Amino acid sequence: MNLLILHTTTTCHFTLQFETKYVRIGLSQNTCSYLDCSREMLLLVLGALLLLFCTLDVWYFLRGAYVFAQAWFQPRVRDMLAEQSIDGTVLPHDLDYMGHMNNSRYLRECDFARFHHYMRNGLFMASWKLGARLVVGASTIRYRRSLAFREAFEIRTKIVGWDEKAFYIEQRFVSKKDGFVSAVMLCRQNVVHCSPESILEFVCKRKIDCPDFPEDLKHWISFISASSQALRAESGLEEKNK
Ligand SMILES: *[C@@H]1O[C@H](CO)[C@@H](O)[C@H](O)[C@H]1NC(C)=O
């Protein structure tokens, strides 16, 4: 018996030749549903991705994973007080109506720079092992000169001090063009379920002396406690009024 496939068409019909007779057989249906099925799968995957991107900040999580992986392969930084820097460029995603890096994007970039910093000096792993959680309790940023589209910059991150409850971090956006500090941020990284001192001791296997707080940090810390006291007093008043 001489079996030949004469042609396949996009409407998914196979025409087979049995000697001289043309016969259409059931095979064509299977092929059809296979193609329909893969088209459906594709739509499903696209739909799922659309839903994911609409509801989750997918780029944030991907970027976070990338930063962790990147830091993983870089050498450890033994000095906990050392300044570390990572490079960045202003991308279309970062722009606002003014065509420069939007104010909110700076804080996002700072997040990644801090992840990177904590990964490289061992703070991240140590907190994880000690069951501590690092959460941002306060941040203040000062914008000094805007970063333009495609401008290259680096973020320099360093631990400037700590107390019983938190690390204080300074992060600077430095333009690669001329070394100008375009923005500077202070961040209070609260340590929950543990203390900064224990984490540092765990990493360095010895006690580390906290450096003297710079003037701006002292003011900032008093600003935080003044704000906290004011809000506490307010809620105290509200409770009395009830
Ligand atoms: C720019 O920042 C503001 C917050 O100040 C935010 O509401 C807005 O969505 C941001 N725009 C872009 C394009 O990131």
From TrEMBL:
CDD domains: 4HBT. Keywords: Membrane, Transmembrane, Transmembrane helix. Pfam families: 4HBT_2. The chain crosses the membrane at residues 41-62. Gene3D superfamilies: Hotdog Thioesterase. Coiled coil: none annotated. Belongs to the THEM6 family. This is Protein THEM6. It comes from Gasterosteus aculeatus aculeatus (three-spined stickleback).
